[in-house]
Every structure is written in C-alpha cells, then in structure tokens.
Amino acid sequence: MTEQREQNAIGERYLLNFNTDDIPYEFYDVVIIGSGIAGVYTALSIPKTANVLIITKETIEINNSVLAQGGIAVSLDQHDSPELHFKDTIYAGAGLCNDTSVKVLVSEAAENIATLCLYGVNFDRDETRRLSLTREGAHSVNRIIHTGDATGKEVCDTLVSAVSDLENVTIKECTYAIDIITENNVAKGVLTTDAGAKQPKAYYAPVVVCASGGYGRLYTKTTNPEVATGDGAALAFRAGAELMDLEFVQFHPTVLFHPQNNSFLISEAVRGEGALLRNINGERFMPTYHDMAELAPRDIVSRAIFQEMQRTKAQHVYLDITHKDRDFLKRRFPTIFNKCLSYGIDMSK
Ligand SMILES: Cc1cc2nc3c(=O)[nH]c(=O)nc-3n(C[C@H](O)[C@H](O)[C@H](O)COP(=O)(O)OP(=O)(O)OC[C@H]3O[C@@H](n4cnc5c(N)ncnc54)[C@H](O)[C@@H]3O)c2cc1C
Hints:
The protein contains ten helices and twelve strands. The chain has 349 residues and is α/β, with parallel strands linked by helices. The chain has three domains: 3-63 and 162-238, 3-Layer(bba) Sandwich (FAD/NAD(P)-binding domain), CATH 3.50.50.60; 70-148, no CATH class; 268-342, Flavocytochrome C3, Chain A, domain 1 (Alpha-Beta Complex).
C-alpha cells in the first residue's frame, strides 16, 4: 500500500462506519464475490474440504456471463494451435496485450473446455461428434465453440446446477459486498448488506475472491445488466488492491437498433456466418476499412460503423444476412431470430 493510500485508510478506508463487535458474522474458508462464470467456476475448482460462500448482489443468474451469445475461443481444429491463437490475439490487441496473460489464455483453454464438457455443458457438435467451430472477428481460423446463440446461458445453467449440488458451497443471493475487511493490509472477510437489513453483516474468511465482473453500466449505452457497475473493482481498490488497464473496455460492434430495445447484442457469430455491414444507403463498407472486412478486430469494426454513421448522417447501419436460408438462421441463431421477430424484424428478409 502506498503512503497516500495509508493516509486515506484513516478516513476513507470503508464506505460505512461499523464496529466488528456489533454486527452479525459468519466464518468460511473462502468467500467469493460474484456468481458469474468466474465466481462459480472458482467455487467448483476449490477442494471439497473447504467451506465456500458465494455472495451475489442480485439473483444468481443476473450477470454478464449468462448473456454471452457467440461462444468461446479455443484452438481445437487440426489446422489451429495455441501459437496461432496467441498470434491472432496479440494482433487483435494492437500489441497492447500482456503476453503472459495471453499465453495462459491460449494454452489453458482446451483443458478448461474439457472440464466444462465434463460438467455437462452441451456445446454444439458436428456429425462426427466433434465440437462445432465457427469464426469470429480477428480469428484467422474457425475456433469458436458455441451452444446455438446462447452459449453463456448453457454454461451458466450447467455450472450453477453443479455448484448448487455441492454441500461445501453456500450461495447467498441479493447480498451486496460493500467492502473487503482488512487487517494489516491482509483480507480478512467481506462486509455486506442485503435487502431489508438494518445493519451490515461480516463474512470472515482467510481467502476472498473478487469475481465481481466489469463496469459497462458506467456508459449510457451498454449491453451489460444492471449489476455491472464496477463496485467490485472499487472495493478491491479501497482494500489496497492494485488495479490495472481500467481504460480497456470493449465496445461490441453490433446491437439491435430499435425504439423499444437498443441494448440487445447481435452476436459477432452472425458476421462469422457471413453477415455484411451496410450503411444507410445499402452500401457495404467494411472492405474499405480493413482487409478482414466484417471480421476485423472489434475495435476497428466499431470505429468503422461510427465513422460511417457520421459520414452518412445516420443513427444506425444495417447488418445483412438475407442471403442465408431462413431455416438455417432459425436453427443457428434461435435467440436472435426470435428476439428480432418480436420487434417485427425478419432476419431473412
Ligand atoms: C451481451 C454480452 C455478450 C457476450 N458474449 C460473449 C461471448 O460470446 N464470448 C465471450 O467470451 N464473452 C462474451 N461476453 C463477455 C463475457 O460475458 C464476460 O467477459 C464474462 O461473462 C465475465 O464473467 P465474470 O464472472 O467475470 O462477470 P459477470 O458474469 O458479470 O459476473 C459478475 C458477478 O458479480 C456480482 N457482483 C458485482 N458486484 C457485486 C457486489 N458489490 N456484491 C455482490 N456481488 C456483486 C454480479 O451480480 C455478478 O453475479 C459477452 C458479454 C455481454 C454483456
């Protein structure tokens, strides 16, 4: 902890005034803040001899993970390798990625996907029972495994069901982490509140895992649910954790543009299956921005869409997949197809 932070610790260390002698408490071996894929997968990975608590500020299924549509990148194809996955990722990150982190991502992906399959996650498979691989932006080969267009829901439903069966894991919903309790700069537990509580409650544990997700809700336009407000990062910071790279927030290129809904993601997998971006005049524009056209890295596609909207003085562009068969679209993208149809938009027309 820096000198400045030590000084802050005197006056501003915690959001609430509380006395640990006066508030209710429980003891665990591990407390995990967050019930997205990070929190739940961590709980499943901890030895069953440890008493684990997951706290989550809404009901268990309200998080970003459940909303993931397109799928998960993993090098499984015979023409693919962790080295190629590494190269593509470094390119997509415009040289700003941390090499060590990317190496972990690409080299440990396959074994973790195998673990998800063992838990029973039902990814789509081809006629030979191999995992189906599709293409997404900046990947030079097909390497996205998926469950239709609702991959996150399938993964979360399966993992939540598995963790709910564990006797060593307790889940407390609608329980809001306010601060990490520290003593001599060491995490000792989590100060929480829940709906209707008259006073905070402490959950003590020698290990605290902060798996509280991102902060997309800081922006007016976002696909993130209401829980993604970044308070996990803030409480970790107050406790003395060093935060890094906070400026890197991903702007996904395509969401539905409709008066009744402008936060529904249209998965990149739609472009992976051949959808073309057209401006308000019906002209395809991505080839003039990047060699990979619609499958360029996301930041490039997002900026191109923005520029094209400014250039044509329009508030939206079109994503055109009308050249694909209607039955294929219904089968491959059932969630997106039906959501669009509920607003009177038929993806095939
Ligand atoms: C619409 C959409 C589509 C996406 N599609 C894909 C995709 O196809 N492929 C892909 O790889 N990634 C995708 N992503 C990104 C991916 O979903 C996230 O990177 C991932 O789910 C993050 O998981 P997480 O567990 O870290 O966070 P989350 O799933 O957001 O979970 C965070 C948890 O922390 C809890 N929490 C937060 N603050 C507190 C607090 N103070 N107290 C208690 N609990 C708290 C929340 O309630 C929540 O349960 C998508 C994201 C979105 C929004």
